[in-house]
Amino acid sequence: MKVLVTGGAGFIGSAVVRLAIARGHQVVNLDALTYAACLENVAEAAQSPNYAFVHADIRDRAALDAAFAEHAPDAVMHLAAESHVDRSIDGPGAFIETNVNGTYHMLEAARAYWAAQGKPDTFRFHHISTDEVYGTLGATGLFTEETPYAPNSPYSASKAASDHLVRAWAETYGLPVVLTNCSNNYGPYHFPEKLIPVVILNALAGKDLPIYGDGSNVRDWLYVEDHADALLLVVEKGALGRSYNIGGENERSNLQLVKALCAILDVKRPKETGSYSDQITFVTDRPGHDARYAIDPTRIRTELGWQPSVTVEEGLEKTVDWYLANEDWWRALQARAGVGERLGTA
Ligand SMILES: NC(=O)c1ccc[n+]([C@@H]2O[C@H](COP(=O)([O-])OP(=O)(O)OC[C@H]3O[C@@H](n4cnc5c(N)ncnc54)[C@H](O)[C@@H]3O)[C@@H](O)[C@H]2O)c1
């Protein structure tokens, strides 16, 4: 399969690129290289003759048309997006521009290319989205593919809008689409403004470990390489027009998660005195902070046979090991604008 991956220099996109190349697929990585991108994430995959890079913005229709014409992909995996909720609170415009308008341009470029090919139903436009489109859960219940959309942040609203566009392009134009909505990812190459890398890196630097509100917000954590595996399964075997929820069934409150990371670090890089958990500090909550997300992954498990390869305990340990071994990678990214600052308190 030749797959056009958008956002392949980001956190999840790069995991998809690495796995697709390892499995012998041809990959065209199309990325605008925003502040969140790092081509080092795919440095090894880029050595492969099966890899090509296109430096382009998904809002640039002419550049998208040129990429489709030159590379003639069998499938698109669309991951390019603005992805940080806190940044979406401070500057929602970029999220509308990229996540909504950019997805519109991707759909139109894909539709024109697909029509020019004679509308093969083997073509796939796979839209990668988030469970945040469903809004928030109370103490019980799970998000299924039938849960009504109720996004609460500018980020999740922009992703919900893009999901609706993809659905409409399938219904109206017959574009062969599949959609996935995934829970919170973590693992290697996670950009150092997101919770897990912030906690690991602040802990090592002797800084406060900031927890929003009282730390009771619950997320369902999935190791990024398991997400990439699920995504390749869906693009290859997913039923036309179907959406699949992807989650690890690993619910943790933010406070539990941070304490688990501290416990791993206490063993792997012990402090002279005390525990890293002594550095935990509670800070003002994020406005509109969703209380709980939890995915029911029954559909992808039963229909496609997917299951995660690691537990959250194993995944967190692998993640800590990766950050301890890759200081050059994260130090360079910590110098980028806004990283390390408290954002999204508006
Ligand atoms: N991180 C998560 O936990 C999570 C969970 C579920 C779904 N998702 C979705 O997965 C996708 C990838 O998330 P991520 O965490 O890897 O994001 P990321 O911020 O790490 O990477 C995004 C990538 O997209 C590129 N990009 C941004 N704007 C672009 C544009 N206008 N044109 C071309 N490229 C552009 C960036 O340069 C970057 O390489 C997103 O669509 C996100 O909504 C993320």
Structure, described:
This protein is α/β, with parallel strands linked by helices and 346 residues long. It has a domain at 2-192 and 221-252 and 294-310: Rossmann fold (3-Layer(aba) Sandwich). Helix content is 41%, strand content 16%. It contains eleven helices and 13 strands. The strands form four sheets. It has a seven-stranded parallel β-sheet, sandwiched between helices. A two-stranded parallel ribbon has the order 7-10. The chain has a two-stranded parallel sheet with strand order 8-13. Helix 6 (195-205) crosses helix 8. The model has no long low-confidence stretch (mean pLDDT 97). Residues 6-7, 9-13, 31-34, 36-37, 57-59, 79-83, 98, 102, 128-130, 159, 182, 184-185, 191 line the site of nicotinamide-adenine-dinucleotide (NAD).
In terms of DSSP E residues, the strand content is: 15-25%
Largest sheet: 7 strands, parallel
CATH superfamily of the domain at 2-192 and 221-252 and 294-310: NAD(P)-binding Rossmann-like Domain
Reading the helices and strands in chain order gives EHEEHEHHEHEEHEEEHEEHEHHH
CATH topology tier name of the domain at 2-192 and 221-252 and 294-310? Rossmann fold
Unique ligands: nicotinamide-adenine-dinucleotide
Low-confidence stretches: none
Strand order of the largest sheet: 3-2-1-4-5-6-11
Please tell me the overall pLDDT: 97
Query: Into which percent range does the helicity of residues fall?
Result: 40-55%
Using DSSP, what is the number of strands? Answer: 13
Level-1 CATH class name of the domain at 2-192 and 221-252 and 294-310: Alpha Beta
End-to-end distance = 45 Å
Query: What structural category characterises the helix and strand content?
Result: alpha/beta
Number of helices: 11
Named at the architecture level, the CATH assignment of the domain at 2-192 and 221-252 and 294-310 is 3-Layer(aba) Sandwich
In one word, what is the shape?
globular
What gyration radius follows from the Cα positions, in whole Å? 20 Å
Pfam families: GDP_Man_Dehyd
Catalytic activity: dTDP-alpha-D-glucose = dTDP-4-dehydro-6-deoxy-alpha-D-glucose + H2O
Cofactor: NAD(+)
GO molecular function: dTDP-glucose 4,6-dehydratase activity
